[in-house]
Write a structure and sequence with these properties.
- About 40% of the residues lie in helices and about 20% in strands.
- By secondary structure, it is an alpha+beta fold.
- Strands 1-2-3-4-5-7-6 form a seven-stranded mixed beta sheet, with helices on both faces.
- Helix 6 links the parallel strand 4 and strand 5.
- The chain is globular and about 50 Å long.
Length: about 210
């Protein structure tokens, strides 16, 4: 892809993803979370994980797209999925459908994943309006080039323009220092059910522009 001289695609502005982009968004997320500590634990069969993750992420991305708050970096190297203040990840109908999807995918193993979703819900602060970063991922073939962090920085400028805080759940503790560089602080933590991996919750107060 052509870029301005001296400027990488990571420096170029992201765009809001539309329904026509959902396959690209899901593809990026499947690759990005294939070895994630929490989500590989949730879907332990490596031979089926990509197909299982694809169904899960597609369902969650569709839920967020009703707010036009799913983003793609220039060139499609990274994607972010946000829920705006007062929004919800899924409609009540889609939340019921999610349970059916997990049961179909995991059978007897569905209980611990559904329990994990309950832990995510319990940990989520609700006393102050905020933007919620549900997913941020980079195409594995594009890692190390700054695409994901450039997308995060661009998104946070939008959040700061609104004068609102932001919240996320770090399912990989290795990413906590990266988020701290962008103004997030550790809010708390919880473990996935049955002695699963730790998830760190993080909060970011708005920064003046």
């Amino acid at each position: 892809m052509a870029t301005v001289a001296g400027m990488s695609s990571a420096d170029q502005p992201p765009r809001v993803a539309g329904p026509e982009d959902i396959d690209d968004v899901v593809r990026i997320l499947v690759g990005a979370f294939a070895e994630d500590p929490a989500w590989s634990w949730a879907f332990p069969d490596a031979s089926q994980r990509s197909a299982q993750h694809a169904q899960l992420w597609r369902h969650l991305v569709r839920g967020a797209m009703r707010y036009r708050s799913v983003w793609l970096s220039e060139g499609g190297a990274a994607t972010s999925v946000w829920i705006p203040p007062g929004g919800s990840e899924l409609t009540p109908e889609d939340a019921e459908a999610l349970e059916s999807i997990v049961v179909d995918l995991l059978g007897p193993g569905a209980g611990r994943v559904l329990g994990a979703f309950e832990e995510f819900e319990r940990a989520h602060p609700r006393d102050e309006p905020h933007w919620f970063l549900t997913l941020l991922g980079t195409d594995p073939q594009q890692r190390g080039r700054g695409h994901g962090l450039a997308l995060l920085a661009a998104n946070l400028r939008v959040v700061d323009e609104a004068g609102l805080p932001a919240y996320l759940e770090a399912s990989n503790s290795a990413n906590v220092p990266l988020y701290q560089r962008y103004g997030f602080a550790v809010h708390g933590s919880f473990r996935m059910p049955e002695g699963g991996p730790e998830v760190v919750t993080m909060w970011r107060d708005p920064r003046p522009l």
